[in-house]
Amino acid sequence: MKLTPRLEAVADLVSDNIKVADIGTDHGYIPVYLIKKNKIQNAIAADINKGPLDNARKEIYSNNLEDRIELRLGSGLSVLKLGEVDEVVIAGMGGVLISQLIENELEIAKKLDKIILQPMQASSELRKYLHKNSFIIEEEILVKEDFRIYEIMVVTYDETGKRQEFIEDEIYYEVGKGLLKNKPSLTLEFIDKKIKEYCKIIEKLEGKEGGKIESKIYECKNKIKKLEELKNDVC
Ligand SMILES: C[S@@+](CC[C@H](N)C(=O)[O-])C[C@H]1O[C@@H](n2cnc3c(N)ncnc32)[C@H](O)[C@@H]1O
Q: What is the CATH code of the structural domain delimited by 5-164?
């Protein structure tokens, strides 16, 4: 079974011989891949919608894995009992929704050995939420698939409340500190994409008038300056 680079990178971050839940599983590719690769014994595949869960069911049955992967219909981590799985994957959803799913079942999330998150957008909001709620981003990677660069985070809960790194500037919510330490060429491409996005916003706003517009342009220019500076930290 061949996964796309994004899904393969997510699946490869799951630890060996643990029980995992894939929340928002849709097609069910991640749990099926993990079991076929003999990386794990059992999994839970969950989704809030019946259609996607039916997709997962088809994938699981066509691979004869119905005794190894349990299907659950429901929202986020609410389908899990406390301590029932070791690790959770939440991939392909927005960063704000992901943070809400964690917040809604905080006790379950805190007990997990690892949470693997792959936000499709609003990753800065997700990083901010994690930082403010004592979740540590242990590892961050980027994966390129076609023209898009995806961010993947490995997160744990810090019971001691002492491990959280100081965030000197909000820019580190946009480009996580962990990203500065690996795959330098992809990180630089990722930062350049962000710079281009801010340039486009400025282009659209220039020529228009109003205090709010001016402050937005100022904010974008400031972000570009900080992102340019960040490129010097990529190693
Ligand atoms: C874009 S798909 C991602 C599928 C797969 N995880 C991936 O990364 O390719 C998002 C899935 O999340 C599901 N979903 C959305 N909100 C959810 C929630 N609150 N709880 C569980 N699943 C949810 C959707 O039904 C959909 O199947």
A: 3.40.50.150
